[in-house]
Each structure stands twice: as structure tokens, then as C-alpha cells.
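Review this chain:
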Amino acid sequence: MKKLTYILLVLAGFNFYSCDDEFLNPLPESAIVVDAFFSSDADVLAGIIGIYDAIQGVNVNTQSNTTRVNRGVQFEFMVTEMRSDNTRTATLEGSRADFHRYRVDANNVQSEDYYQSMYEIIFRANNILNYIDVADASNQSAYTAEAKFLRAYAYFNLVRLYGPVPLVTAVVGPTEDELLFTRVDEGTIYNQIASDLQEAINNLDNRFKSRASKAAAEGLLAKVYLSQPTPDYAGARQLCESIVNSGDFDLESNFRDVFYDELNDEILFAIQYEFGNVQESQGFSAEFTATVRQGRQDGLNIVNDNLVADFIEFGGNRTEVSYVTFPSYTEVTKYLPEGSDVSVFPPTYGGSPGDAGNDLIILRYADVLLMHAESILAGGGQTSESAAIDSYMKVKERAGFDPIADRPASLTKDALLVERRVELAFENQRFFDLMRFGVADAVLGAHAADNGYLDYDTRKLLLPIPSREINLSKGLLTQNPGY
């Protein structure tokens, strides 16, 4: 049995305490010495569930302070969707409004929290891996695979948003500053992500949708292959076809059911929340309301007119599920809190919209089908290969388009990108899609110019490394250009 000496995290369910009440992140001053340890298989499993708790994050209704609270993925729409051409804030006040105007600086508290939240996931995963030999022998490979899947998920988010970041794959002590604060090149990080996900593929099955699974690892690795500096299109195609051929997943016939009949046949991986329970609920759904404000802010993730235009032309029956237009704002409706009714004006949002239970979908089958088409396109401008068009059309047909009249003779990169936009709108995919398709600067530069966002330049495609991290590194951690 290994004794826990240095840990850089607090694990839910165990009585670990730090020397202060700061949000714990990979910083030497946050290291703690404890006299506790994992002693059973049940302890290790509880620790794995604690990693998901870190992803889930803390609802603002539990702790409203915006600094170092670990919101997990609850701020993800700000660092992704609101930095694309999809959405904006209702007002120009506060740090949240900086995302859509490309004015985020190194002191932005939401970006800092997201960065630290991803490292919270990583450090919890590393801690589990350090104590995996405590688990029953029959469970060790699966537990290892699950922890590595979650570590890969966090690093994939970090490398796409912040570029080179510190790569930490083991529990570290309070004097290991160089490991904690040395930025590692993107290729090395992608190699680690791919290795972790391959182990997950080899050792997991498809029992879970709200926990790691083989298919979730395959789908995430396919996206990694498409996103890495040198894409592996053949590898991505093979992984997508493995998911399709498994027969374990299918498109929901009703698009609305994807979001309100949770953990349905289309879901590969989702983060679960529980309605009405402040400890297990999420607050981001309420923040998407502005006409009749239900959250703490004036309205976030408000839909841009150019996205509405794409929905009108290409959305089909997805349109009425995705957003609603009121006299003041066009609001996201994919994550309406329980009890909402937006068919009337003024709309209602149930009894406890700030304690919403809507799951956050990380990966679903429609995304896999469109990635399959993308992998066949292989970075080109178009393809006439029927397999790519078939996958593309399955998603289009569910949206109400005609399988014959609307089937293209050749699938273009532009058409696929638009299809991903309207299918996956508000699911935090658009920014990453623009980056992966190599058009982010062109699209977002034009979008910024049209809207008078004068702070945009190519360097803003990466978020700044949080100043607090740089200051605590005493010069070891460097900043991204332009900040």
C-alpha cells in the first residue's frame, strides 16, 4: 500500500485538506502533506467518480464567488462558443463580455478558472493512477483506462485553447517547479493524449454514457487525430467506422430528444447534472436567458444574427429546438431548464432554473458521422466518395431534408462546416471546428470586422495563460504572444 505524501488536489469523498482554502491547481504553494491513503477498491472507484465531479464543477448558486472555485465545464461556453461567430453577451459589462469581443486578458477570472479546472481533472486522474495497485486486480486495467481517458479529455481542451501547456502525468511534489511550469510543445501533448485514449479503447467497453467508454475514447481520439498538427485522416476514419459498426449508437429520430431524453442512443459521453440539487446541478442554462433574466448575469450565449441566417437556410427541424427569438434577444433553447415554456411571451423557466439538471453533451453520434465525412474529405475542398456523403446525409435527413433532392453529388468543405454549425450549435464545438478546418482566422476576422471588434487579431485564437499561474511560477511559465 502506497502512502500518500504529496498531493495537489482535494479528492471528493476523502478528508484531505490544504493549508489554505484556495482552489487547488498545479502550484508548489498548493502542495499538501497528508497522512491519508487509498486502502481499497472502493476507495479507488470513489476517487474516479471524484474526477467526474471536477468536470461537473460547482454551480454558482452554491458559491457565487467568481475566483478559484472550480466551475469545471460550466464556463466552457465562454471560452469556446462565445469566441466563435455563434454567440455573444447581452451587455458589454464585465469580464464575460470580453470573450466575444476578443478582449480577454491574462487576468480574466473565467479563463483562469477553466484552465485551473482542467488541471484539477488532470491531477485527480494522476492521483488515481498513483494508487491503482490498491484496486482489485480485476479492475485495475479498467480504472487505469478511465483515469487516462479523463486526463486526455482535459489536456485536449487545454492544448486547443491555450497551446503548449505544462504536461504533468504523475503526482508531483512541492519542489518540482520545472515540471509544473514548463510548457511542452503541442506535438508532445497530442502524443500523450493519443496514448491515453488508445489505452482507454483497449480496456473499456460501452456500458456507460456518463462515464468513459470505448466508443467515447474512439470518438475523442478521432477528433484528436483531426485536430493535431499533422492530422491522421485515415486513423480518424477507422475510429469513426468502428463506432458506426458497433451498432451501439444511432441518431434519435426526434432532434429534441437528443437534449431532453438524456443518455439516449445518440449519446457517447455526457456530463450529468441533477435538477434542483445545488450540489449536483448546473447554472449555465439559466445564464442563457436574457429577455426574462433567470441567471445572475444579464444574458450570456445570446445567438448572433449570422447563425440565425444559417439556421433559416440549413437548419431544418433543428431550428425550433435550438433557439427562440423574442423582441429583445435570440436565446439558446437546447438546454432549457426543467419546466420551461418559451412558446409564450413572456417565457417561463420553471421553478428552479438556476439549479438545472440538463446534461452537457461532450460527444454524440451525429458528431461522429460528420467527423467520418471530414476524415474522408481529408483536408481537401470536396469529395464525391459516397461513404462521406452517406454520413453527411444521415444527419441532414434527420433534420428533415430530402434524401434524394438534397443529396449533393459532391460534398464540399464549406457545406460540411455549415452542417456542423447548425447541428452542433451551442454544444461548444464551433470554435474548435473553425480551427480544425483551418478557417478560424478568415471567419472570425471577418466576423470581428463586421461587428466592430477591434481587438481581434490572429494571436487571439489562443487564450492567455493566466497571470496568476505565471506569477507563481516565478518566471518559468511563459505567456502566449499578444498578451
